[in-house]
Amino acid sequence: MREKIIESLKSKLNRRVWESWFGTFDVKEIKTDHVVFQVGNLFIRDWLEKKYGALISKTLKEVFERQMSFQIDYAPTQPQEESDENEPLVKKRPLVLTPLNPILTFDNFIVGPNNMFAYSTSLEIAKNPGKYNPFFLYGGVGLGKTHLVQAIGHYLFRNQPDLRVIYLTSERFLNELVDSIKKNQVQEFRERFRNKIDVLLLDDVQFLIGKSGIQTELFHTFNELYNAGKQVVVCSDRDPQQLEKFQDRLVSRFQMGVVAKIEKPDEETCFKIASKMVQLEGAHLQEDVLRLVATNFSDNLRRLRGALVKIIMYQQISNDIIDVQKAAELLSIAAVQAPKELPQQKLIITLCKFFGVTPEEIVGKSKKQIVLNARQVGMFVAKNHFGLSLRQIAELFNRSHPTVSHTLQKVEELLNSGNIIVKNQIDQLVKYLTDRVSNQSI
Length: 442
Known about the structure:
By secondary structure, the protein is α/β, with parallel strands linked by helices. Helices cover 53% and strands 10% of the residues.
C-alpha cells in the first residue's frame, strides 16, 4: 500500500516538483483511517502541509476509497547538532544546522540591473566567506533578498561542507534567546551562536526595532563572529540608517563592510523572473501573458508568483491554454487593455483539438507519436503560414532554437519526398485553423 500511495501521488506532480519537495517524503505508518508521513526537512514539512495538503488528502481518498486523515512528521536524515570528536575532518555531507528552501539558489536567481551588485557580492561572499564582512543587504518587500541570502547558504553547503552555516530570521533569533532564558540555558545559546558557527545568515533584522535587549545580545554575537573572522550576512527591508530605535553601535557595525540594495526590477528583468518561476513550476504560459503579469506585479515578486500560480492552476484545471485576455480577467486587471489576439496565438489550442492531445503534451516532454506529429506540423504552420520567427516558435512550443530548426527541416524533407499524410495534415490544419479563427470559435 505504501508504494501505491507514493506512486499515485508522484503521478500527479511533475518531476521537478517531486525532486525539489518530495525527495525525503515517505510513508511512516498506515492506520485504519490515518496515514503518517515523514520528511527529513522541517521547512519542507511546513511547505508540503501548506501547498500540497489538499492534493495529499485527495490522493489518499483515491487509494483507500474513503476519507483518510494524515500528518507529516519531521525526521531529520542528517545530524542537527555538533558532530562527535571522532568524526572525520572531511565530511561527506554538510552539517545542516538550519534547513533552506531548495528553490532559492544562485542558479534560480535572475540577474538584472536592479540587483547586479547585490548578486555579485553575494556570490563572491559564498566563494570567499569572510572577504567582505559584514554584508548588509536591503530592499523592498518581495524583491529577492531572502533568495540571495539562502543562495549563499546553498553554495556553502555544496562547496564547503565543512563550514557550519546557520540561516534564521531575527524573530527566530529572538525566540531562541527567550526560550534559553526560560530554561536557564543562556550560556548554551551564546556558545551556539558565537563559537559553534562559521557563517551567520540573519534575515529580517528590522523585526528587532525597539527591542533593546535582543539588540544587545546581537551586538555581542556580531562582535564575537566578526573578530573571529566569521562571515556575517544581515538582511533588512530598509537602509541601516533607517533602522529607527536601533542601537547606534549596532547600526555602525552593519555599515562596516559592504551595504547593497536591491531595487525594483525593470520590466524586462521582471519578465525573465516570471519566465523562470513558470519553468520551476513545470508549466508553460504564452509570452504575452508573462509580460502582462510582469508589467502589473513588478513591485513584489511574491505577488508576481501568486499571480502566475493562479493562472497556471486555472490552465491545468480547464485543460486549455490561457490567453492574455483571460489572464487579465483572472487577475482582475481592469486597467489593462489586452492586445488583440493574433490567429497564431491559438495555434496550440487548435492543434490539441485537431490531433486529440493536451496542451501539456504539446509544450511538455511527451514523446508519443501523435504528439510528435502535432508538434512538427504545428511548428511548420507557425513558420510558413503565420510567419513566426524561430525565437517565437521556440517560445510558443517551449523548445530550443536548434530543436525548432531541426523539426522544420525534417518536415520540409517529408514534404519534398512526397509524404501525402503530412501534407494533408498541414492543409487540413490550416483550413481548420482559418475557419475557426474566422468564426471566433476555437
